[in-house]
Each structure stands twice: as C-alpha cells, then as structure tokens.
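Narrative of accomplishments. A recurring question from our advisory board has been how the design workflow behaves on a single, concrete structure rather than in aggregate. To address it, we present the structure tokens for one chain from the evaluation set, followed by the sequence designed for it. No filtering or post-editing was applied between the two.
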C-alpha cells in the first residue's frame, strides 16, 4: 500500500463505488464535507447515473481546487 492508493481517483472514488456495489445500492445521494467534497464532486460528475443528488458542505469552489491543484 502506498499514498497513491488513497488519492481521489484510485482510492476514495473506487472505494465508494465498490461499497455501493457490495450493498447492491444502484442509486444514492452523495455528500462530501471539506476535503471529502472533491470526492463527492468527482463521483457525481463521472458517474451521474449512480447519484440522485450532490451536496458539498463547507468547501471552496471547484475552480479554486483546480487552480491550487489536487495535491493541496
């Protein structure tokens, strides 16, 4: 296991979908707070058919994240 295994695309993103699949949840609401919000945004943007709604709480705008880079 390495730090790269837990980045947004390879770690959290795939983990959320795997948990949903294991629980046979086809469609869900997704919410993310602070550093979890970019994960929620990515899930909703890349797999919109799996999510009813997206709620991002206490977090900067996506453009601010893109400008600063995901490494922040």
């Amino acid at each position: 296991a390495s730090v790269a295994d837990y980045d947004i695309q390879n770690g959290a993103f795939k983990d959320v979908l795997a948990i949903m699949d294991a629980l046979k949840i086809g469609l869900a609401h997704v919410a993310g707070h602070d550093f979890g919000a970019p994960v929620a945004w990515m899930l909703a943007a890349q797999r919109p058919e799996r999510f009813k709604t997206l709620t991002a709480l206490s977090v900067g705008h996506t453009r601010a994240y893109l400008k600063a880079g995901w490494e922040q």
